[in-house]
Amino acid sequence: MFLPIKRESGKSYDFVFVSGDAYVDHPSFGHAIISRLLQAEGFSVGMVCQPVKDADYAEFGEPNIAFLVSSGVVDSMVNNYTAAKRKRGGDVYSEGGEAGKRPDRALTAYCRKLKSLFPNGTVIAGGIEASLRRFAHYDYWSDAVMPSVITDSMADLIVYGMGEKPFYDITGLLKRGVPIKDVKDARGTLYATEYENFSIKLKEKIARGEAVFCPSFDEVKNDKTRYVKAFNIQNRNNDPFTAKTLIQKHGGVYVVQNPPAFPLSVAEIDAVYALPYERRCHPSYKKGVPALSEMQYSVTSARGCFGGCSYCALNYHQGGIVQKRSKRSIVDEARRFTADAEFKGIISDVGGPTANFRDAACEKQRTRGKCADKNCIGYAACKNLKVSHGEYLDILRTLRGLEGVKKVFVRSGVRYDYLMYDADESFFDELIKHHVSGQLKVAPEHCSDGVLKLMNKPGFGLYGAFRDRFYEKCKRFGKEQYLVPYFISSHPGSTLEDAIELALYLKSVNSVPEQVQDFYPTPSTKSTTIFYTGLNPDTMEPVYTAVDEESKRMQRALLQYGRKENYFLVKKALETAGRMDLIGFGKGCLIKPPGKGADSAPKNVVKNADSATGNAGNAPKNFTKNALKNPQNRTKDKRIIRRKTR
Questions:
Q1: 460 shares its domain with 373
Q2: What is the rounded distance in angstroms from the CA atom of residue 381 to the CA atom of residue 387?
Q3: CATH of the domain at 20
Q4: What average pLDDT does the segment 458-481 reach?
């Protein structure tokens, strides 16, 4: 049974969940997990999804305990706008894929509306929009530093990160008779208070050095070096084993963040995915919800990511310690698929933020957390990185052997560097033979060494070695499959020359991507900090960043050099960079000179995929085939992987 979307006559509800997504009762949606968890803990929950009118918000009246608010699976501004700040034409998390079903800055809009309608009601905000905006942050869409979302939204409490642990703690306190307004110390939560209302416990933490002050909102708004300092403090205190309580002054109030929640145990995460989800959108949506089609018969095998990519918000939201489900839990979920009359035998994905990360990066992480001053993987892999695909491969083998299952695909991100570090190629072989649905998506992101360092991505030579091995295996196993590499244009540190270098690589492998992601500055990531301040948080050295629209458009156009509509932008970029040698009829030229046929795309290019027949020998000079097989051998080729100093 779905949770109610209409009030039952005369009934009051403990919690009312207000969501920016359509109501989909599937564990890929945060509102489904938290509402089902609360139900399992014995609390009643009403669902208000994508409210518009006052009557929508008031459907269940004021709840006995609190309103819960999330803008949805994606930050509402990212959901509503492209990286070029243009309104998106659709919304896959809304009925029929229709745009315009949620307001801009939905979390703030929903919380304020609830506070106006129910002044005495308690409002708890959560989800990714709350997580990424919990401190003062740079807001790309207004091009300004904005205060913590708790002060903007007037919410009483924020649950940041993945919310299960905090809600287990909160419901435990409620069952012991603690009023919701007195819940202040739960891990994974944040609140705002005046200095005179600091608790004795908080004052004692400050005295012992267990609570630290970040530069204030006024400081970070007016001084970019203070902004970087605040980012570094927050970034260093994002691990549950080592984090301190953080405090940031906002005018007359102080935002107080309790340390992050500890990772879920295997038993706890198994319990979350065993809750009675319908795995469908609510039947009131006659047009369906497009996002569900990819997720309905997918399996989340793990959470968290130790990848540490500078542009990614996952580490800040899900955490850097991988939390896994048991094999039994995953297989039981797949068996439930086979009992569903609509299941066609295809498990669309088995994975998480990074599909082939199955466990903690090293033994230390289990008890002492993630290192504050080094990376597990990225431009340089830690010597203590534990590399194994054995458990994940065993799960995939079992799933594809289930009666009623025809295919099991891996579509969430595969870290090709982690795969290449594994001396045992069994997983690589079986990935190619059984688990690629025609195309495998991977994310080299760029080919320039300087840009990759700032992204914390591996040297490009490793991608070249992976690419060659992928196609060798496809040929050996008789599979016509392709790599679809993702590249980012205009990432901080990427100059016009770097973009040209990447365009030359793409030409060398006969590829013109249909889609290129222009760098999208989202709150609280390291790359966004560089974008806004122009400073590398690790060194405080200046970093070139394309911030004006024309520079960004030229870099993006270079990556799609073969598109007719990009001809004049590519020409201008080459002229600006002094690379007139790349305008001509030669094999190495990106475009033809002005005149007949100049604005037409080159022949025999492959859209999206790296061509299996591409001539890698024409790639940029730092494209090295002799890449490393595992992190222990990284010193064999210093061009590919160097130990990153921080």
A1: no
A2: 11
A3: 3.40.50.2300
A4: 96
Kindly state the average pLDDT of the residues 243-260: 97
The model's confidence at residue 595, banded by pLDDT at 50, 70 and 90, is confident
Q: What is the mean pLDDT of the chain?
A: 91
C-alpha dihedral, 271 to 276 to 281 to 282, nearest 10°: -140
CA-to-CA separations, 28 to 23, 113, 236, 389, 636, in angstroms, rounded: 12, 27, 28, 24, 42
Q: SS3 for 137? A: strand
Q: Whole domain around residue 301: which residue ranges?
A: 297-437
Same domain, 471 and 610: yes
User: Per-residue pLDDT averaged across 418-431, rounded?
Assistant: 96
**What pLDDT, on a 0 to 100 scale, did the predictor assign at position 634?**
35
Q: What are 193-240's pLDDT values in tens digits?
A: 999 999 999 999 999 999 999 999 999 999 999 999 999 999 999 999
CATH number of the domain to which 394 belongs: 3.30.750.210
**Which residue reads 């039952």 in tokens?**
8
> Of 325, 320, 322, 319, which Cα lies nearest the Cα of 272?
325
Report the distance separating Cα 531 and Cα 533, nearest Å. Answer: 6
**Domain identity same for 84 and 41:** yes
Q: How far apart are CA 250 and CA 429, in angstroms?
A: 54
Asked whether residue 636 is domain-assigned, the answer is: yes
Q: What is the DSSP track for 1-57?
A: -PPPSSPPTT---SEEEEESS--EESTTSHHHHHHHHHHHTT--EEEEES--SHHHH
Q: Which helix H or strand E contains 517, and what residues bound it?
A: strand 517-518
- Give the span between the Cα atoms of 59 and 49, in whole angstroms: 11
Domains held by the chain: number: 3
Asked if the structure places residue 287 within a domain, the reply is no
For residues 359 and 227, state if they share a domain: no
Same domain, 645 and 497: yes
Give the DSSP H/E element, type plus range, for residue 229. helix 224-236
Question: Is residue 353 domain-resident?
Answer: yes
**What pTM was estimated for this model as a whole?**
0.91
Same domain, 245 and 362: no
In a domain, 239, yes or no: yes
DSSP 445-457: E---HHHHHHHT-
Spell out the SS3 assignment of 96-118: HHECCCCCCCHHHHHHHHHHHHC
